[in-house]
Design goal:
The structure is a homodimer. By secondary structure, chain A is of the alpha/beta class. The first copy, chain A, folds into three domains: 93 residues, D-Maltodextrin-Binding Protein, domain 2 (3-Layer(aba) Sandwich); 77 residues, Periplasmic binding protein-like II (D-Maltodextrin-Binding Protein, domain 2, 3-Layer(aba) Sandwich); 81 residues, ACT domain (Alpha-Beta Plaits). Helix content of chain A is 29%, strand content 33%. In chain A, the strands form three sheets. In chain A, strands 1, 2, 3, 4, 5 and 11 form a six-stranded mixed beta sheet that branches. Chain A has a five-stranded mixed beta sheet with strand order 8-7-9-6-10. A four-stranded antiparallel beta sheet of chain A has the order 13-14-12-15, sandwiched between helices. At the A-B interface, helix 3, strand 8, helix 8 and strand 13 of A face helix 3, strand 8, helix 8 and strand 13 of B.
Chain lengths: 278, 278
């Protein structure tokens, strides 16, 4: 039975993504205490796979995931899944949400609900936690002046009540999760996506040159994200997703050229693509 | 006397940047409680200028700043300054840093010290705060089991001792701050930088087309950063910095073309460039 890790504890959005992923696959789900711990456990063989949040349509990429995949581990993305995310305000039984003065939540959820917090709860102090479930736990402990933001299922687990649903700044809120493991996935789909990370020479036109390679081979790009290269300001590494599988001749040829024109290049995986128009 | 806002309270890196900026300019510094509040106060005329953290060489752009400049205010960047950032571990007098079990800090500083926290303080629980100064204040209140990470000057303000300096994951750590106001800056330097934000059509090659415009006019790009466009996954807006001033004929012509080829375009300012090779 495969062991699959997620950012725990019970009641996180990551747990929900992991539960959806393992439908029909006999698996043991393991709640981990941080994203780094989860990814390193896969690298060291203590877990077979991990389900990890990768990017959100409001708050953007999860920086720590990008940095660890680029620099600290050697893992492959073998699948992706996209979940609609409804951020829920949870309070203690008997409380009124308008009266709370403390809100506990993870920074990603806080980032997705910035306008709500500013406009509807200007008096409330924000306490950032390591997971939304920990936030719910803290809200429970702090009583009727406290609330938590996160996935609705945390309310039941921690004995809170749902006060408001869909409090994120835009109803259209999705998080894309990726499944990572030590071995690449086989090509089993005719709709695939390939993820790479690279850096280019620090001179004019070097990023344009890479993007032109994809244009030349008519390859669609569905994600581009820059991260600092951890040295000097103004030097970046780029995370790009393209349509197609590493074993498609055009993708293979384009990536051969990309590799030639970059100073750092890492293949992160080819995997079945989920409806890309979320 | 001009009123200049920064993310307070006393002892933050933003305060240090603001103090450096106002050398020789008679000014009143005003500590604000959030970055949004600071930028909105400039927009509404309650402050003349604000000094705001924009990007860090380890942790990347400050998402909330990019989102507010793109969507919520109509302000101009009129200056930039880059500071070396030394993250400091501060503890209560009489404590041993190896024994602390709680660390209080802002998410940006936590992101810059991820490896240190994981390797040197694996037993310590991380509590995220709204500013580093608030973290130092919390560490003081929580006694010898608690520590804070932030700017060294917070130690004196909050009665803590410096246990370790330069604990960020890479000694080479810089934060770039920008000064924003309601009116554009005059062209007073021969070394300038121009910042824009835009989005392109969702079709292959549309970002490559924009970057090719800068190549065509031989304009150097010193920053590119993508942010989700707050609607669908896979749609982005791009923040780009180029060398040169809006009033330079080449920059003017290139940006005229960029404007024509983008679906959303906003000019964020032309301002004197600081040594770009930090």
């Amino acid at each position: 039975m495969q062991r699959i890790g997620f950012l725990g504890p019970e009641g996180t959005f990551s747990q929900r993504a992991a539960l959806i992923y393992i439908t029909d696959k006999p698996s043991e789900l393991v709640g981990m205490s941080s994203i780094r711990e989860t990814l390193l456990a896969v690298q060291h063989g203590e877990l077979d796979l991990a389900v990890i949040p990768y990017e959100n349509s409001l708050e953007g990429s999860v920086n720590v995931v990008l940095d660890i995949l680029a620099w600290e581990v050697d893992l492959h993305i073998i699948n992706e899944l996209t979940l609609p995310i409804s951020q829920t305000l949870m309070i203690n039984p008997g409380a009124r949400w308008q009266d709370i003065t403390e809100v506990f939540t993870h920074p990603q959820s806080a980032g997705q609900c910035r306008l709500f917090l500013e406009k509807q709860l200007p008096q409330a102090k924000l306490y950032l936690t390591n997971s939304n479930s920990e936030g719910a736990n803290q809200a429970k402990k702090n009583g009727i002046t406290a609330g938590a933001i996160g996935a609705e299922q945390a309310a039941e687990i921690f004995g809170l009540e749902v006060a408001l649903r869909d409090i994120q700044d835009n109803r259209n809120n999705f998080t894309r999760f990726v499944v990572v493991g030590k071995n690449p996935a086989h090509n089993t789909s005719d709709q695939n996506k390939t993820s790479i990370v690279f850096s280019t020479e620090h001179k004019p036109g070097s990023l344009a040159c890479i993007l032109d390679i994809f244009s030349l081979w008519d390859i669609n790009m569905s994600k581009i994200e820059s991260r600092p290269s951890r040295g000097k300001l103004g030097r970046y590494i780029f995370f790009i997703d393209i349509e197609g599988h590493m074993t498609d001749p055009d993708v293979r040829d384009a990536l051969t050229m990309v590799k030639r024109k970059t100073t750092f290049y890492k293949f992160l995986g080819s995997y079945p693509r989920v409806d890309s128009d979320k």
